[in-house]
Amino acid sequence: MYIKNESGRVRVTCVEKDYPWLIYMSKNSTLHNKHTCRRDYGCNLTDRKWVTDEKLELRLKTQPKLTPREAMEHMKEYYNVQLNGKMIIRALKQAREIVLDSEKTQFGKMKDYLNEIHKSNPRSTAHMNTLPQPQGPNLFERVYINFDACKRGFRNRCRPHIGLDGYFLKGYYGNQFLFAVTQDANNLVFVIAFGVVRVENTENWKWFLNCLQDDFRANMLFGWDLMSDQQKGLIRTVKEVMPNAYHRNYKFRDKQVKGYVWKATRSTTPVQFKAAIDRLKSVSHGAWEYISMFDPKVWCMAFFSHFSKNAAVTNNMWRTGMQL
Asked: Any idea where the MULE transposase domain is (predicted)?
């Protein structure tokens, strides 16, 4: 009901007695509606808890791989607030731990994940090693996974050429990701097996290759072609675990390699190779001496094994494919 109703103001309450509802309105007498100042998207009320609990948590459920830049643009577009980068990174990390659970909890569930792999994919391989502790639960050491579909695909549809590599994992524990990939009939990357280890070294590579060899021992009658970047003792490890395998090496980085070296690498006949090597020797004797230390069959196309039907001379494709 209207208590007061004048030309410039009005007061209204509820018709029920002793009910606290009340509204008071008055007419604006002055308004300067011209704005020339820059809009400020900042707000002191937007703390990390508000960003995490109310906004980013909902977004991560539909977009698990949300990046800090995307999160910042999302907050500005939907909530008209501009947040600093450090707050976004901290809020995004906290929200991801809530949605995806923390990495500590995920590692604690590793045995459950592997048991589920054996249950849903009976012919898959999933091994995990742990470090026993005098007090408390065992610590994670390394894991190897090879799905049955990947085994069958490699045996029946792919070339016997395997690329080996590894890279760092970004996260609470760090660790390193090892993988073995090949090429299918369309020259696309096909994942064979992968694993996670605490550090990339000779011991872990030897363990990984032994697991890989156990999965495909029946397919090694004619040998394999292996390609790596010679890091972390891979040359010695391959010779110990797979002595019959052809091992192609990739050492030079793009910035260091000159045209003559690449021309020798891509030579398809021994005659072309000799001509390219002679030109390299005339240009850089030091590069020629270094190249001559290695058997041409591990880096020159003209001397590769014909069994694998694969002419790859670098491991760039393996890294690119796994990162995608």
From this structure: 162-248
Q: What is this structure's pTM? A: 0.61
Give kind and range of the element (H or E) at residue 279.
Answer: helix 270-283
User: Which pLDDT belongs to residue 255?
Assistant: 46
Using CA atoms, how far apart are residues 195 and 161, in angstroms rounded to an integer?
19
- Give Cα separations from 260 to 25, 265, 274, 297 (angstroms): 85, 9, 11, 18
pLDDT above 50: residue 114: yes
162 versus 313: the higher-pLDDT residue is 162
94-127: burial string, b at 16+ Cβ within 10 Å, e else:
bbbeeeeeeeeeebeeeeeebeebeeebeebbbe
Backbone phi, then psi, for 10, in 5-degree steps? Answer: -150, 145
Round to whole Å and give the CA distance between 206 and 214: 12
299/291 Cα distance (integer angstroms): 9
Under 8 Å between Cβ of 220 and 241? no
- CA 215 from chain centre, in angstroms, equals 25
Domain range 107-251+310-323, CATH class: alpha beta
Query: Do the strands 22-26 and 9-13 form a parallel or antiparallel pair, or are they unpaired?
Result: antiparallel
- Alpha-carbon torsion 132, 134, 138, 142, what sign? negative
The structure tokens listed for 11 are: 């007061």
Domain-by-domain residue ranges, the chain?
A: 1-27, 48-100, 107-251+310-323, 252-298
